[in-house]
Amino acid sequence: MTNKPVFGTQEWAKYNQNCIKGCSHDCKYCYAKAVAIRFKRKTAENWKIEDLRYERLTHTFRKVSGRFMFPTSHDITPEHMNECIFYLGNILKPGNEVIVVSKPHLQCVKEMCDVLSRFKDQILFRFTIGSADSGILKFWEPGAPDFDERVASLEYAYSNGFQTSVSCEPMLGGNIDEVIRITVPIVTDAIWLGKMNDLKARLTLNGANDLATIQRANQLIAEQSDPWVRQIYSRYKDNGKIKWKESIKKVVGLEIQTEKGLDV
Questions:
Q1: d(Cα 183, Cα 187) in Å, to the nearest integer?
Q2: Over the stretch 35-52, which tens digit does the pLDDT of each residue have?
Q3: Sheet strand arrangement including 15-16
Q4: Going by DSSP bridges, is the β-strand pair 51-52/242-244 parallel, antiparallel, or unpaired?
Q5: Given this model, what pLDDT does residue 1 score?
Q6: What sign does the dihedral 215-129-28-244 (CA atoms) show?
Q7: Is the pLDDT of residue 170 over 50?
Q8: How far is 70 from 238, CA to CA, in rounded Å?
Q9: For the chain, which domains are there?
Q10: How far apart are CA 84 and CA 75, in angstroms?
């Protein structure tokens, strides 16, 4: 029986969980921001104001088959670190496995590793690092930590015995090979590579369509051509720690596969 293709977060986890509306990282290309604006849940101006969903903190979870991903439409920032860790603990207590996806603040990672240490075997940290150039990260992800802090967060989780992985989706330029070189020794699971998707449409919805941003967007789209993707794939196809998101698999003709723990 042929597996059904899966996309987006379903490539990583069966269930999505969030407890905040908005995100202070305010990434220009953010899919969640574009969706919130489209459905009038937020505006381009107030997206970076984080509104805690207090009702979520009392939600009771049961043990389920398949992983949770937390968060998917916001991030874990110092402003609501304690609430996010509390909520994450509620997901973990019944025995669920969770992929914690973040552009990580070291303060938050240290607190998570301390408070949630007894759930170590149920947690896989996946930190988003789309470039080794902090200037590029600052342009596209203005409120998020720089490259050095993200690597320090990864190293801290790894040294404390947690499962670790990296998401280079979207790849933002600035020598993705350098991201791989630096992070692969402190990754226990995988480094996922993926292209930028629907960039111009998201920029328009998110109110980030000024001339400088559109010029950078055009440059990034041109850089991530099919020949470039094939070169990346050729370079790393035999590296067991490198995994390919759907945007890469479409170009190189791979079957869409999923991570362990998903029902497909």
A1: 6
A2: 999 999 999 999 999 999
A3: 15-16, 68-70, 98-102, 123-128, 163-168, 191-193, 242-244
A4: unpaired
A5: 41
A6: positive
A7: yes
A8: 30
A9: 8-252 (3.80.30)
A10: 9
